[in-house]
Amino acid sequence: MKFTVEDSDKVLIYLEIAAFTKAPGIFYPQDSGRHFEAALEKVNNTQFRLTFKQWIPAQVGLLVLRSFTLQFKLPVNLEKGNKPKEYVFATPSVLTSHDPRKYVRIPIAPQLTKIVVVRKLDDSGNPLAEEGRKKLIQGAIQDVSASGIAFKVAVADPFFDSGKQVALTYNLFGITIDAVARVVSASGNLIRCHLLNLNKAIQHQLDLKITASLQRMLDKHHQDLINLIEASSNLRKLEREKQQRGELTDRKQLDENFVELINPILESTINVMESLAGLKLVKRELRLERICSAIYDISSQISFKGPKVEGHLFLCLKDTVAKGLANRILGGDTQELDADVQDMTGEICNIIVGNSKKNLPKDQIFKLSTPTIIVGKEHLVAVLSRYPVIRMIFDCEVGQVDLNLYLDEIQEKLNGIAASGGTPSFTYKTELINPILNATEKIFENYLSLETRKKGVVMRETLAPKFELSALLDIFGKGLRGKVLLNISNRLALKIHHILLGEEKTLIDDQVKDAVGEMVNIITGNAKGEFGRMNLSYTVSTPYVIFGRNHIISNAGDNPFISSVYWSSEGFFEICLSFTADPTDVK
Q1: Residue spans of alpha helices (H) in 379-507
Q2: What is the pLDDT of residue 226?
Q3: Which span out of 40-49, 351-360, 555-564 was modeled with the highest average pLDDT?
Q4: What's the CA angle centered on 346, arms 342 and 351, to 5 degrees?
Q5: Would 162 be classed as within a structural domain?
Q6: SS3 readout for 358-402
Q7: Domain at 93, CATH number
């Protein structure tokens, strides 16, 4: 495959991404059999810098860079920089990717994951016996090209061996692929296949769409990079201001605050699983991700707020792992994700965070929300945080256990908590929904210009939201704790994104989720004035978003959810809340 970039703006973007992600550049000097690794940095739009670890024998040669999903080779004529082992080169006008594959390959974003259906064939390419022909295997697509596909199956299957043939059916960019493929490799439950005898016209059409998709992904990746740079700049500005006020004496202090929280949670998780379930957890890896890329069946969430750091902890499990834990902790032979399994998952998350508190410095002690339980086949969770998720992956006898930790630096939100005396009144919780409902109606009608009609108010112990997209946040206040949830139809979510950002979309992506998360933020912010007249005040957590069909949300607090369903001119939505008195916070 030869992928050429001739647009000067695109060339600059690819090089900026390579520099920002710190992917090492490999320099092959002319007339030399050796190669040298160098760090790439941007000087300005016309020059980039390479810093080597050692002396290089020539300054003319070939530079190999990896950017995004592609590898580029460019001839360079290096000039010496201001420091030893430092060289600069001019930004090239053209970039060319030389890849042994014939077509561009791209990953599929988790929220856009399609399902591939596999039918087994014998060595001659004919369907297996009647029993085998009926056995269809579903898998989640990981990456694609015009000539191949990689997908994950739930359970590793010995049939998937190099050289075997399978019949694949899947839909990609509106094109239905129904073709025979050869298994190229099978590593655990990840299968890579090469399509055989695919129609040339379809192959060409796929290649065009995948190449265009790569450019769109590149643009989004570059925008994320710009946002990250801006967030870093804002963070440095915030730290400088704190330093001037004497509140922050060291650049490393913020990172240390995070580390002081991560390590106790890691230690607590291992101890809790061993004491409750008799399982020895082995930490597989710790990684940073913008969104939880794994797909789960049951998750437990707790928000916490301390003097320096706030965040969310998600304990995320697949169906089989949750039932395996239940069998060990509760006894019996659990077959369903019933109420007992859900309560157990929430309590494990609660105990993990609670036990970690004893290992925190005194200035890091935090308050906890009540656990929220999310049940839904293959749901995703995301949080609107400036920082990526810290994903901790453990292996144990019953399977994989994921902890997803979102952290953020404490900052004043929605004007902070107003200082006022007296004990808040909690006559009955239905009176507390009025400020939220009033704010919701005003925002939808006045700010979004959407007509709404309230269909009624009900109380629910467990929420089974009608729509795929739910945005939640936790409330921390004087004598008050709670949760607010906005569940919204895809059509309405896309319309809200269009109104807020002026951009039309046809699919639910991260930007649409951010817009819906921002809506629940705006609603709770606008309700503060009315709560203030009731002598109640609060701050809110960072919103988090759940995306998946048929998810169920339960509240482990003292009160059920109060729910109101609305009709709007662009689709239905539901606003729910649950408040709990917190006497420990009443002065």
Answers
A1: 433-442, 490-501
A2: 65
A3: 40-49
A4: 145
A5: yes
A6: HHCCHHHCCEECCCEEEEEEEEEEEECCCCCEEEEEEEECCEEEE
A7: 2.30.110.10
| Global confidence as pTM | 0.42
| Residue pair 406/544 in contact by the 8 Å Cβ criterion | yes
Give the span between the Cα atoms of 109 and 402, in whole angstroms.
Answer: 19
Reply yes or no on whether the pLDDT at 393 is more than 70: yes
- The answer for residues whose C-beta is within 8 angstroms of residue 25's C-beta and 6 or more apart is 18, 37, 38, 39, 40, 50, 63, 64, 65
Pair 401, 328: CB distance under 8 Å: no
pLDDT of residue 48 exceeding 90: yes
For 543-586, what is each residue's pLDDT tens digit? 888 887 667 777 655 567 778 888 888 888 888 888 765 545 43
Any alpha helices (H) in 105-167, and if so which ranges?
130-134
533/454 same-domain check: yes
What is the per-residue pLDDT for 470? 87
What six digits make up the tokens of 128? 């297996």
The structure tokens 């002065």 sit at 587
Residue with more model confidence, 565 or 386: 565
pLDDT digit string (tens) for 117-137? 888 787 777 776 554 444 567
CB 284 within 8 A of CB 278: no
Phi, psi of 244 (to 5 degrees): -65, -30
Are residues 44 and 129 located together in one domain of the fold? no
Residue 230's pLDDT is what? 61
In a domain, 234, yes or no: no
What is the pLDDT confidence band of residue 1, given thresholds at 50, 70 and 90?
A: low
Q: Which H/E stretch holds residue 289? A: strand 282-289
Question: What are the two backbone dihedrals, phi and then psi, of residue 193, each rounded to the nearest 5 degrees?
Answer: -130, 150
Domain tally, the chain? 4
Same domain, 198 and 285: no
* 401 and 394 Cβ atoms separated by less than 8 Å: yes
Q: What is the mean pLDDT of the chain?
A: 76
Same domain, residue pair 177 and 150: yes
Same domain for 407 and 293: yes
Return the CATH number at 299.
Answer: 3.40.1550.10
Residue with token string 């769109």:
216
pLDDT score recorded for residue 357: 72
Per-residue DSSP letter, 250: -
What DSSP string runs through 185-200?
Answer: EEETTEEEEEEES--H
Which residues have C-beta within 8 Å of that of residue 502, sequence separation ≥ 6? Answer: none
Range of the domain at 69: 2-98
Residue 315: the pLDDT is 86
Quickly state the pLDDT bin for 51 (edges 50, 70, 90).
very high
Task: Measure Cα distances from 177 to 137, 279, 455, 488, 504 in Å.
Answer: 16, 44, 43, 32, 28
Burial of 267 from C-beta contacts in 10 A (0-12 / 13-18 / 19+):
middle
Classify each residue of 132-150 as buried b or exposed e, where b means 16 or more C-beta atoms within 10 Å of its C-beta.
Answer: eeeeebebbbbebbbbbbb
Per-residue pLDDT of 175-197, as tens digits, reads: 888 889 999 988 878 899 999 98
Contact 38, 28 (CB under 8 A): no
Inter-residue contact 311 to 406 (CB < 8 Å): yes
